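Bug report

Summary: structure tokens for MobA/VirD2-like nuclease domain-containing protein differ between web form and batch submission.
Environment: batch mode, default settings.
Steps: 1) Submit the sequence below via batch. 2) Compare with the web form result.

Sequence submitted:
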Amino acid sequence: MSLDWSKFKRKKNRLRIRWQWAKYDDDIDQVKKFYRAIRRNKSSSSYAKPKNIFIGNRNLISPKQQNVMVKFNYSRIEKSHKTLLEQYLPQERKENVKEKPVFFSAKREGQEAYEAYKSNMVPLHFKIILSPETNRLPLKNYTRAYMERVEWELGVKFDWVAVVHTDKPHHHVHILINGADRDGKPLKRPFPRDFVTRRSHIIASEIATNIIGQRSMEDIALSNDRKLSSNRWTSYDEDIQKLSKNNKIVPESERLRRRLNHLIELDLATYENGIYSLEKNWDTTLQITGRYNSFLYARDELKWNLKNDLKLFEGGQISGIVRKVYTLDDEYENNNAVIIENKNEAYFVPLFNRPSKKMEGKECVIEASATSKGRLAAKIYTISKKTEKEKNVSQGKSSEKTKRMR
């Protein structure tokens, strides 16, 4: 279908598009959908204003711009909201952190920011993590500039509070956003999907670059070197995937060789007679780890299955022993999840609700189905076992019945 680009002028149809230019197929498809919607609505008397679209791709970020990792999460559970505010953000459970993080918001500092946020809390909440590649950024000022830009782009006055965590090699910011704005009005889907997956990354990179300048060639080379030892899917892994045949590869470049050596350390590859052999599901494991940071090390919890047999649970029913419980309350976790294993299979199961640590070692059943929005809703049930005494009693009763029948 040929496109008449004049139809997308803001004056004619009020369609607000953040242009980074539609170079990619998914962007073109998105524009086509809205173009068809405009044609259908032209004949309608009640012309609906389209929602904001953020066209672009995070790959459009120039290599010279600062790299910033952005992660979004949300929950509707009041207890989780309270735990994040009172324990997770201030790192109350971490004894090794002597100097606790200080709360701040758009215009408040310390206890004042904490109390102001707490007084207006509702169950719905959002959490954003900003983790710049460099530690040279003044994170407090950077966070305020980022949130100001986000509010301007989305047209929402967020009620938020944040802290800076410096206990990791990469300093990062946790932003907690209330489910009601500053005027107390409930938020209804304030973050469009395109904003979460694309635009938020572009904004974070642009602001960081404006504050400390572009990356030097030395910084870019250092960043590429970090990819060599990353535990997640990288551009080097894409090259390995393309060049390998039957999961075997002889690397031609030094960078790919170093990347493959790191995959050996992760038990995802082996080396013999100049040939690297990739383990089964090595690519899937790395890609899942990008979404669930516990997945890579969860393989060590298995007792009945091989490491590379751990799979991501995608629906249905499974029963087995819960080997490990991961929760958002843990400092280094970004998801609630459990590892469940039986003699035939093992699964990593992401959970929306926080699982109890008491489930570890118990036999459970997990059932999951897709919701109306296409998300996986998993529920976990503990299987109550009979005691030996109960078994003996039941066996005694059954033997008595058989005697009577005879």
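Above is the batch result. After comparison, the two runs are identical; trailing whitespace caused the diff. The longest helix spans residues 193-212. Residues 7-26, 42-59, 385-391 have pLDDT under 50 and may be disordered.
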